[in-house]
Amino acid sequence: MDIDWGWIGEHTDTLSANAVTHLRLALLPVLFGLLISLPLGLACRRWGRLYAPVLTVSNILYAIPSIALFMVFIQYTGLEPATVMIPLTLYSLSVLVPNVVDGLGSVSEPVRQAATAMGFGTLRRLVRVELPIAVPIVIAGVRVAAVSSISLVAIGQLIGQGGLGYDIIRGYQLQFPTQIVAASVLIVALALITDALLVLVQRLLTPWARGRAA
Amino acid sequence: MITFEGVTKRYPDGTVALDDVTLECPTGRITVFVGTSGGGKTTALRTINRMVDPTGGRVLIDGGDVRDRRPAELRRGIGYVIQHAGLFPHRTIEDNIATVPYLLGRRKKDARAAARELMERVGLEPGMAKRYPYQLSGGQQQRVGVARALAADPPVMLMDEPFSAVDPVVRAELQDELLRLQAELRKTIVFVTHDIDEAIRLGDRIAVFRTGGKLVQVAAPEELLADPADDFVAGFIGQNRGIRSLSFAGTSKLRLRDDVVRPVTSSDTEGLDWVLVVDEKRRPLGWARGADVDGSLADAALAPVGPTFRPGTDSVRVALDAAVLSASGLAVGVDGDGSVVGVAGGTDLLEGPR
Ligand SMILES: Nc1ncnc2c1ncn2[C@@H]1O[C@H](COP(=O)(O)OP(=O)(O)OP(=O)(O)O)[C@@H](O)[C@H]1O
Ligand SMILES: [Mg+2]
């Protein structure tokens, strides 16, 4: 298999434009997923009986093939980015919700009681003590969700949503391996870079977690 | 003063954690709660800062019912120290200590400066200010816990088995530190422990709880040792309460002997089993057996002096310990410079207290 380096050189513009689209389609759902998981995780901690059903539902959602979910949402949201992003958001819940719950659970009882005894109200305790302590575990979940979303979103091209998935399908149609390989390598690179950035963010945000099993 | 007026706590499952407890914890003193596990000590402590609300009776601080205060605001005026310190892992040592001042809206710079001062007071190096809790030993963490409780200078401190997770040597250090701080600060402290020795060491008053949340006896430590209210209390105090009570007997009236003390230049051991050899400043060098001395004491074989005691400062228990460990059976009393004041035997020591 020959790689046509010249083609790559000529197409850096479209490739990088597609990479940007790709990242947006992949990472916005993780952000939305996080925004949903925080209150949902809190509710699961508060009312323990909620957790098992929430977890089951999010796992079932995760098991549904993305293509099937596209077909469902296409009826409501049409050939729009939302049709790709909604399923990815739902997928991210199956790692993010448990990690939010575990993160909050990593706050030890003495710490919780000390906070109460020093005069933190419930909300202030949550924001100043419990959520900050949950950050390393939540970010660990975000890393998994982000990497899998970057890889999954390539399939969004099936409903014409662009990104590097476009180059893979186009390369296949044209029997042009260079385009497929270039897009695939870029996807892996984006995933690795995103992961590395998240590790960096976690380090900066939680210097205190280094001595622990981070 | 903290006052418990007929305080009862019955949990919804029927457990009675406190049963009609009436008790006073005097201002500026350390009141220690001891008793069986599950006896209601922690529950009693927590009724003071409203982490538990009683189902009957009232808890008053300086005459005011705690239930008239909003919990969060009440708690900011009450220091709280627990077993595993409960430090915030995500905050530096200085920010942990400044927690309550921050809650009270103090400026960050002032709160941190105050935190650093407190660190010195509780025996922590200022260099630790920027560290995180995981970088400290258990004993150091506990000191931070104490500093954090003191940060807003609350008149009342609640301490729930604060020193029970550290080893005995560190525990003794922390106890000394607390007594030293208390001599300066005169807080109203309520201190929970399982350890009767700790209770006796720290307590101005000791309250003994037994299963079912019943308060059995409240007394000063010496009174508790001398006159336990019932078999439960006597059993709880343990076997050797006679010996323990000697901790409260002073040595100021003790008659010390001087006849066995000899300078190292002397050779006179006439008629003595043991002589205590001292240098020119009367500092003890060791014990020489009279019968073995042949010539100058400078050449005599010496048994070690062992522990000494400070007459007037140390208790009879310390002196007795020194006597038991001494080769001659005599306890060596020394002054602040380490010079020998005199010696005392076991029977001399026990004469006073009896
Ligand atoms: N939330 C609760 N619900 C029901 N029972 C409780 C609750 N909290 C405490 N208890 C019970 O109340 C009793 C007193 O508990 P407490 O924690 O005050 O004991 P303690 O003297 O501090 O014991 P320990 O020395 O083991 O710490 C125990 O029997 C305990 O099981
Ligand atoms: Mg307890």
Overview of the structural elements:
- The complex is a heterodimer of chains A (214) and B (354).
- With 214 residues, chain A is an all-alpha fold.
- Chain A has one domain: MetI-like (MetI-like fold), CATH 1.10.3720.10.
- Helix content of chain A is 79%, strand content 0%.
- Chain A contains nine helices and no strands.
- Chain A has helices at 5-10, 12-46, 51-63, 66-77, 81-105, 109-117, 122-152, 164-173, 177-205.
- In chain A, α5 packs across α7.
- The radius of gyration of chain A is 20 Å and the shape is elongated.
- The mean pLDDT of chain A is 92.
- Chain B is globular and about 80 Å long.
- In chain B, a hairpin with a 5-residue loop joins β15 and β16.
- By secondary structure, chain B is an alpha/beta fold.
- At the A-B interface, α6 and α7 of A face α2, β6 and α4 of B.
- The complex binds adenosine-5'-triphosphate and magnesium ion.
- The site of magnesium ion (MG) has 2 residues of chain B, from α1.
Please name the CATH topology of the largest domain in chain B: Rossmann fold
What's the architecture of the largest domain in chain B, going by CATH? 3-Layer(aba) Sandwich
Strand content of chain A: under 5%
The SSE string of chain B, one letter per element, is EEEHEEHEHHHHEHEHEEHHHEEEEHEEH
**CATH level 1 name of the largest domain in chain B:** Alpha Beta
The rounded distance between the terminal residues' Cα atoms of chain B is 35 Å
* Unreliable runs of chain B: none
Number of H- or I-type helical stretches of chain B: 13
Described by its quaternary structure, the protein is heterodimer
**Can you give the mean pLDDT of chain A?**
92
Share of residues in helices of chain B: 25-40%
Reading off the top of the CATH hierarchy, the class of chain A is best stated as Mainly Alpha
CATH topology of chain A: MetI-like fold
Uncertain segments of chain A: none
Q: Which two chains have the most extensive interface, and how many residues on each?
A: A-B, 23 and 30 residues
Largest sheet of chain B: 6 strands, mixed
DSSP strand count of chain A? 0
Shape of chain B: globular
Radius of gyration of chain B from CA coordinates: 25 Å
Secondary structural class of chain A: mainly alpha
